Amino acid sequence: MSTQFARFRPSGETLLWGAVVLNAELFTLIYYFATSNYSGGELRYLLYPFVWINVALFAVWKTNPISRSDRDKIVGVAVAVVYFLVLGYAGGLFSVTQPMPGISSSGFRIAWLPPGWGPALLYRGDLLRLSILPFKLVGYLALAYLVYATVLDAAGSAISGILGLFSCVSCTWPVVASLVTGIAGAGSGLATMATSGSYDISTVVFVVTVALLYWRPTIR
After folding, report:
1. Which partner for 142 in 24, 56, 68, 112 could form a disulfide, CB atoms 3.0-4.6 Å apart?
2. CA distance 160 to 170
3. How far is 77 from 31, CA to CA, in rounded Å?
4. Count of other CB atoms within 10 angstroms of residue 212
5. Under 8 Å CB-to-CB from 42, ≥6 apart: which residues?
């Protein structure tokens, strides 16, 4: 058990690179504040993307999948791809749209959102819509990679990967918020709390899920 928990202890190299990354992110935020018209608000929403990205990069960097056979590798890749597609769809990275007769809405554009949220790649076509937020893309790719490592380690058992679906609470929670809004009224404090709390919850669940999937491949 102590050996398993030792994997969470950062090495000197990890601490060095972590300091470099954190300093780069701090500089990015300072530059954003200096050049944008940011007028305040909840600072934590500017920090959440960095939490997702940093946790994801650390887990991927410290995870080394070991394949026992080509079959396990193929199964692992297949499960990870499907898992990522499910997360991407539920998490809003992409969605299917219905074509509107006589209206052409195809086209790409870049949304210059705050660091981590952006720059976001947006696309709306007749059949597909993309909303690629950097922190979500990195986070979901990391979860898929950890599921791949779990499949290889568990020889086909990826049940723990299902936990990662709860990282999409950022998308399912607004559905609850809309129901609350409909019942209690759009101006109610309860509706506001339900909407504003979505990324608070999703960030906590994402971190816990990454930790579980990172630890899971060590269990035989």
Report:
1. 56
2. 20
3. 39
4. 15
5. 196
Q: Quote the crossing angle between the two packed helices 169-184 and 189-196, to the nearest 10°.
A: 170
CA dihedral of 36, 43, 135, 50, whole degrees rounded to 10 = 100
Q: Cα angle vertex 96, ends 55, 111, to 5°?
A: 55
Mean predicted confidence (pLDDT) in 21-34 = 88
Tens of pLDDT, residues 94-106: 988 876 665 556 7
pLDDT at 132 (0 to 100): 93
* Spatial separation of the C-alpha atoms in residues 73 and 148, rounded to whole Å: 8
Using an 8 Å Cβ cutoff, are 58 and 210 in contact? Answer: no
DSSP type of residue 11 = P
Joined together, the tokens standing for residue 171 give 């998308």
- H or E segment and range at residue 128: strand 128-132
Q: Hey, how many other C-beta atoms are within 10 angstroms of the C-beta on 152?
A: 23
Under a CB-based contact definition with an 8 Å cutoff, are residues 50 and 136 in contact?
no
Compute CA distances 199 → 45, 68, 202, whole Å: 8, 38, 5
Tally of CA atoms within 13 A in the half-sphere of 67 that contains its CB = 10
> CB under 8 Å to 11, separation ≥6 — which residues?
none
Could you give the CA distance from residue 186 to residue 137 in angstroms, rounded to a whole number? 31
Burial 31-45 (b: 16+ CB within 10 A, else e): ebeeeeeeeeeeeee
- Would the pTM of this model clear 0.85, i.e. be above it? no
Q: How far apart are the first and last CA of the chain?
A: 12
